Amino acid sequence: MAYTQPHPRLSVLSTSSLPPSADYASPTNSSTRFSLASAPSLSNTLVGSTKATSARPSIYDRNLNKTRFTEVSGSAFAFLFSEMVQYTQKRVSGIGDLERRLNTLGYRVGVRVLEMMMFRQESSSKNPKRETRLLPVLMLIHSQVWKAVFGKAADAIEKSVENADEYMIIDNDPPIERHISVPRDMSQLSCSSFTAGIVEAVLDGLGFPARVTAHNTPTTQYPTRSTILIKLDKIVLEREELMK
């Protein structure tokens, strides 16, 4: 699902208040009499309502392959994510706790993204293939998963020079950070922890357990640049050695 450019810039950490409830006037007494014969039949009303409901297609009946390239409003996504962060922020004690909560929310989304991608692959391909090596799986996340969620591929994928179990996926302009305003006292906060949760769920689902975290790595050219750090489980590296 790709996201179109939203118009308003929303601050996910700003406080919001509910609109005041509307005042409803009490009905006035009326001396007009109504004939029961002219009133609509209850049974006819129910039947008509049922027919209207049954005629409207359910979201669960839609073909997932036909909605593959359907775009979702970026403004709607920005507003929804803003509400998610504000809701979570009120229930945590610090930045670390907030990032863990966002990671958990992203993990739930990642499980469903992987399920949808596997369904589309099996239904559109006669010989669906499951990747069993690490690099093809990382490239799958870098390209297909990013396109399915954000409408574009990530910018780079790198391997750590110091640690053999660490890989990094870099997004120079992550859509999830594009319309977020973070206060100075929370400058260490990375809302891309939500994206890290998606990546972690996909890796777990494909049989490559890892711990995934998000880090802000801004540059002069890309002030919202984010790095998704993947720290693989020991069993993944042992399996890679056996498959060489």
UniProtKB/TrEMBL annotation:
Residue stretches of biased makeup (Low complexity): 8-21
Keywords in alphabetical order: Endoplasmic reticulum, ER-Golgi transport, Golgi apparatus, Transport
Cellular component, GO annotation: endoplasmic reticulum; TRAPPI protein complex; TRAPPII protein complex; TRAPPIII protein complex
Organism superkingdom: Eukaryota
Subunit details: Part of the multisubunit TRAPP (transport protein particle) complex.
Family: Belongs to the TRAPP small subunits family. BET3 subfamily.
Cited PANTHER family: 41-2 PROTEIN ANTIGEN-RELATED (PTHR20902), TRAFFICKING PROTEIN PARTICLE COMPLEX SUBUNIT 5 (PTHR20902:SF0)
Protein name as catalogued: Trafficking protein particle complex subunit
Species name: Pleurotus ostreatus
Protein's gene: TRS31
